[in-house]
Amino acid sequence: MPHKPLFLAPSLAFAAAVSAHIFVADAAPPEPPVIIKALTGDTIVQPDGSYTTITHTEMLATNESAAHSIAQHRVEYSESMETADVLEAFTRKADGKILEVDRTQIFPQAPPGSSQLPMFNDRKQKVIVFPDVSAADTVVYTIKQTHKAPFAEQFFFGGVFFRGVAFEDVRVNITLPKAMTPHVEAQRVEHQVEEAEESVTHKFLYRNPRPPVAEPAALSPWDTEPHYIISTFPDYAAVAAAYRQMAAGKAAVTPRIQALADEITTGTSDRRDQAHRIYDWVSKHVRYVAVVLGNGGYEPHEVVKILENGYGDCKDHVVLLEALLKAKGIVSVPVLIDSGNRYRAPEAATPAAFNHVLSYLPEFELYADSTAGVAPFGTLPVTEYGKPVALAVEPGASLTSLPLVLTEENDEKLQTTAQLMADGTVTGQSSTTASGPFGVRLRQLATDIESKGREQMAATQLRSLGWSGKGSFEFEPPRDGLARTYTVSGSFELETRPEFMEGKAFAPPQGLRMLVRPGEFLLGSWTLAKAEPTPCFSGHQTEELSLTLPPGRDIELLPKGKAVENPYLRYQSEWKRDGQVVTVRREIMVKLPVAVCREEIRAQLAAVIAEIRGDYRAEIALKPLVH
Fold this sequence. Notes:
By secondary structure, this protein is α+β, with helices and mostly antiparallel strands. 19% of the residues lie in helices and 35% in strands.
């Protein structure tokens, strides 16, 4: 799927620097490639929530490739909210010799960006390049960082440890004034408390010197891996209220906002229609750009500035939508959510559990996410459904969950009609129609096609399905109208495949498929181990592939269909022959009671996935027509 909008939180993981060293293999090696010999962190928290951390790390490489991977380390920080100083850095050779890093060559620079994510920020980095790192050497560095508090008089912090990384000794100390009351979650991490006269120190200890083989996971490490979280927020109502307080003053109804709201809603007095029109306007006219300057990771900008720029991040979308709706007397409140694969809210309430904001309109009991840009009013990107959210509804606030996506509201259908010519050339037309969250995804793909070229993307899509050929797409502008249902059509011509005429088996071409096949995505990951939990979704998917055979040709055998049913789904495929036209139709209806499939549900879905995979392999082969 494409990148989702976000706002950035302070770093929460000492282990992040070594996460790249996770490996997967058939059997556990005798020795991990990288061993964290020592990782210590000492954090002193001030009454205003600001804090200073000194982190000391020692990493040993056990082979040359690992040595190459740890020979450089980046320290990222916000120039206006944080400082970062390298107190020491050196390579310790296997014989004990110390090679110091020239710290005069460590200076602030902009971190590498992504052309796919427009962003304005004040993030900087300092890069430590260690000299002469070889197998059996250890890189050692100590870093001091200071952090301003994004929320006054509140503190939150945490660390996650990937099970595939070897940690020999981790000791993290966090000292707070006694007047602060922290809440702690520690999962598979030892937690100790030590009291002094005016402070309390929370100690977190962890060891995993011989890690098991790291299995791929579909959920966030914060949902599955050993971790600790400490936060002075008493609950998620307090988290939502703190964000609400920070953002509330930004949504002022200025004369310009009032005039714009009146202009957008001209001709309608229906309140839901007014809200719909305002939402569509913001979706279309405010381009998503991540803006993380100063406290911009949490704090939205003034609505006047957002209008002047014509762009903003998720917080800016939400605050502008709130202001315009307020001008018409319609209430809108921010909703904090994680846009990635985090489906669990930690027991210790922390703002870092969320990286995205969307809107809730209580009058219509409706959630809306204008940052998606192409989501119809009241429809969310599919990965947002079923997640925990902090809802800042005045006068209170609460932790709740978004509703699950409904089967009947998440629909996609592919119809491809192709003709096989006597020389083995295939021509055809495809049409993908989708509604609900699938429709959002289809519009996102159409936006990508518009930016890269319809013919170019058609050729790319055909190659991804194993064909060489050419084609082009046809569709209405994806940002216009935002109707519930959306269609992308296209025509294609595939390379000549004379072997088909000689009897080589093949499956009817999928053509210009835009979305996934029936069963894919809805049932969760198709590649994880059966016991691994995975996000999963309700929905309805259909594909109908028709192929007209050339004159004088018949097929050896019409494949048999497949029918699978359990308490959570119904899958059926059917092959039929009508003269020279061979058609296969596949359909799946999925209705799940959860957002994450585990244990019994996961096992049942995994069994169905295996059967559907086999059904996809069905092929036809041609033979001369016998009269």
